[in-house]
Sequence to fold (498 residues):
Amino acid sequence: MVLNFSESEARVYEYLKKNKEASIDQLLALDQQQDKIRRAIETLKYNGLIEELATATTFYELGNEGKDALENCFLEERLCDYLATREITVSELNTKDIPNLKREDIPLAFGLAKKLGLIEISESNLIKVNSDYKDKLNRQRQMLEAVAEGGNLQQTQLEDFLKRKGFLIKKEKQSKKYKLLEIASYQVAEGKELYLTPDMLKSQDYLKLDFKAFDVEKLPAPKDIGRVHPLRHLCRKIREAYLEMGFKEMKAPYVETSFWNMDAMFISQMHPARDIQDTFYLKKSGELPKDRDLIFRVSETHKNGWITGSCGYQYDWDEELAKKLVLRTHTTAATFRTFYELCEEEKEGAKYFCIDKVFRNETSDYTHLSEFHQAEGFIIGDELSLSDLMAFIKEFLKKFGLTKVRFKPTYNPYTEPSVEASGYNEKTKSWIELINAGIFRPEALAPFRIKKTVIAWGFGVERLAMLVYQHPIKDIHGNDASLDWLRSYTIPKIEAEK
Ligand code: PHE
Fold:
């Protein structure tokens, strides 16, 4: 069969026939219009005439020390320049102040100078600089310059530089190579048009012209364009889920007073979580709410339980501690700010959610991050019970495809009873804590004049992400996130199990 080649295809083909293999750069050099060559390569590849090979080539760049050596001079050069005009013994060397050479670098410079044959030591231990030392160093400099200009040195030439810390940085360049697979008979069929232009349409020339066929089924090369981050996507889905269920959104600041982050919800001023370990404290203090009556209600509850029937913590509540600014450790701060803002009607029944960042002074590991997202919610209603709360959580998680959920009792200073829900990770065959929840204690609600039952929960979005995407969190975000995965992950269809 005689194939029809375009002129560029024929050029690429002939080049490969002669050279067997060629790099992309060599092929692109065949024509000034690189586009044509790229298209030709793709067509030949598509027709199985040539094969694409990916190759990695190692090259070196100058590191900081290498650059310094080139711009200024080598360590051993500074030493030799100094020694060239002096008579110094080896033992005297360490006591000398040599221009531009730190004391601690003298032994290194000395070692290098000896190794490169720039100096010799006489029997009386005198150091003698060889007369050709500048020539030798200039040769070194030329080699270094060659590296800096991207030239390739032989491995043996590189070795000395590689041994020196910070001289060279090893890099890899991915490049493409092409290889001829099949010898074909062809004829150059030129005169085929590639693009339909407005002029061709106007003049109706397109009716007479012969167009090159396009393969409309073929996928274009992948492009690294911006896309939704998996966490952002999940946050959107959670938000949608809450909104669909009639929840309203609440927002609150990242920087919070301890009052809103802790005191308002009856966390004792002596609670261990207030310790520096868990909370990021700011240097400055903030302001308490102007409403002295609210401060009174909260502080009385801490001191003696106020009207709740509880005896409180029996201590002197300290206003200054409550003023301390923190990076909020949970979105429950938003919940309590919202409690304060609720109108009378909402105090009888309301549903709110908050999806936002929180901060904890924790060491990051497989399941912990010091900055993460919580998706919190609460429902105020009549006679809500723990089973309502658990049912809600199960229902909510179902929306994210999670059906294997288990509960266990836990402790929160502000909820009683409190539960923790875990989801099962099918991939790692382990349970992972997702949600901390409970029913707010009267001591947390009374200062906000809420008399109904309030069930509430807060869950870790990153934890849920691990289950939804079946990927460790370190791949999803943070310094070690896997860019390859982020660029290629498929957005999962999160659908409720029917
Ligand atoms: N504040 C809790 C946490 O950070 C979550 C929670 C919110 C628990 C509301 C109970 C009620 O883990």
Notes: The chain has 20 helices and 17 strands. The two ends are 57 Å apart (CA to CA).
